[in-house]
Amino acid sequence: MSVNEIEDGPGFADLALGPELLKALSGLGYEEPTPIQREAIPPLLEGRDLLGQAATGTGKTAAFALPMLQRLHGVLRAAGGEEGGEPGGLVLVPTRELAVQVSEAMHRYGRDLGTRVLPIYGGQPIGRQLRALERGVDVVVATPGRALDHIGRGTLPLKGLRMVVLDEADEMLDMGFAEDIEAILQDIPEERQTVLFSATMPPRIDGIARRHLREPVRIRIEREAPAAGEAPLIRQSAYIVSRAYKPAALGRVLDVEAPTAAIVFCRTREEVDQLTETMNGRGYRAEALHGGMGQEQRDRVMGRLRSGTADLLMATDVAARGLDIEQLTHVINYDVPSAPESYVHRIGRVGRAGREGVAITLAEPREHRMLKTIERVTRSRITVEKVPTVADLRARRLELTRAALQESLMEDGDLDRFRVVVETLADEFDLVDIALAAVKLAHESTGAAADEEEIPEVTPRAPRPERGPREGRDDRYGRDDRRGRRGGGPMSRVFVGAGRSAGVRPQDIVGAITGETRVTGREIGAIEIADRFTLVEIPDAAVDEVVEALRHTTIKGKRPTVRRDRDGAPRGRR
Ligand code: AMP
């Protein structure tokens, strides 16, 4: 697909989605479908099976969720919208985190349709799931192990299923769910629609597709690389940061890079608005630009950028189309773009006319795979760099002060009027000390506020280890040793100042940790919940990251004290 086709491609309204879904999408600030959505939604709405190769970050969840919601809703309406019915849709996912994420997304998209979506996964008390299933749900999003448990108990009826999605199928196989998936698919009525998404297509995935999909439409989001010579002169780098630290990381990167003008790309209008507010609050001069703004407003924003009153432009892809900003030195992707084409398109805004430009991407650990895909497709190298530390930042600011002083010494003929100050002080103080005090004042007057927040370093998420089919399954909190935790390094305890009396449950702790850091559920050790506090075992190497991240997260609506447990010296795995 060429860049032009992306620009002129169909919008959500052209994809035959119903008004309730369109409303939800516009409410979420999605301005246009991503490439995978554009290609997958029409055939799925027609009822075709589909085999899609796409990584996280491409928008694949909405690509299957929107057609599923629309088709199930059509069936329900035809049946008179009866309550308490059996599920019509089943989504199988590899992890608890993904189950929660997908069902939240489906719930948001399907709000106006009244679709009832239930995540079920190991680790959550089964009683609650049983009650919810009994009341009736339309879509179940489940990990294969727990889904099979329910099927065995007769609590997850399969005969009403019309659409089944295998999401991140390669991950499910890596986690040893192959047999479970086969068992589940075998029991579902044949006239169902089946969708399989996978980031990679090893032969085993092909095998599942051949056995269980009927004449599937095949979609791959990777495309031809841009022609040689098309790539402009751009330094490309990426920082891996967890979500909680993204605004801080953006600020840090801006401080160190000191762009003349930068454009920061976000996925949605809401993100544009929020980030603009956050960055202005942090003392940057940012302006928002998105599709919801009128021409006059846009012109005003552009005027401020051109005149230098603002130096940061926060924009969605759609809003930034056709913009040509002479002063632009930096393009920053606040998220990894959903397709390599849009990456190419975005970074093409700098490095024009032979000038050098900089493209920086902030990626979450889980988005690392998409970054690799972009590198492969664009045949360019994106260097993953360490987020500048507080010390780096201080050094950089001192360097700026030094450069300013040097400039003043070389160019300013007007220094003599300060001589009297130096000479009178020299009677009492050493000349170097006087200079030092003057540098301090100059440095502080640049507004170099102390930014003391250290941003934890995270590395890309490593691929999951192979496990035997039944081993450990997805029962993330069953703290037995079958789970095959990764590594075997020492564990340390983290103290969290909230416990049973605050309603803390193991899943809250696990959810907070896996959601904000690169620690996986399997790596978390024993969780002891006392009345007023909780102790959780974490691989020693990850303790600092976990402590930092939890300090910025709420647990049960509160921000409890979090620290390394005092007698939490590394201990061997039990
Ligand atoms: P996924 O690849 O499904 O994990 O989606 C990645 C992220 O992109 C999620 O945060 C979605 O909310 C967001 N997203 C999906 N589709 C769109 C769209 N058309 N426009 C903007 N954001 C989207």
TrEMBL record:
PROSITE patterns: DEAD_ATP_HELICASE, HELICASE_ATP_BIND_1, HELICASE_CTER, Q_MOTIF. Residues 41-219 form the Helicase ATP-binding domain. It catalyses: ATP + H2O = ADP + phosphate + H(+). Residues 463-483 have a biased composition (Basic and acidic residues). SUPFAM superfamilies: P-loop containing nucleoside triphosphate hydrolases. Residues 249-394 form the Helicase C-terminal domain. It is an enzyme of class 3 (hydrolase). Pfam families: DbpA, DEAD, DeaD_dimer, Helicase_C. Residues 445-496 are annotated as: Disordered. Residues 10-38 form the DEAD-box RNA helicase Q domain. It comes from the Bacteria. InterPro entries: DbpA/CsdA_RNA-bd_dom, DEAD/DEAH_box_helicase_dom, DEAD/DEAH_RhlB, DEAD_box_RNA_helicase, DeaD_dimer, Helicase_ATP-bd, Helicase_C-like, Nucleotide-bd_a/b_plait_sf. The keyword Signal does not apply. GO terms for cellular component: cytosol. Its EC number is 3.6.4.13. Keywords: ATP-binding, Cytoplasm, Helicase, Hydrolase, Nucleotide-binding, Stress response. A motif (Q motif) lies at residues 10-38. One of its GO terms (molecular function) is RNA helicase activity. Belongs to the DEAD box helicase family. PANTHER family: ATP-DEPENDENT RNA HELICASE DBPA, ATP-DEPENDENT RNA HELICASE RHLE-RELATED. This is RNA helicase. It comes from Microbispora triticiradicis.
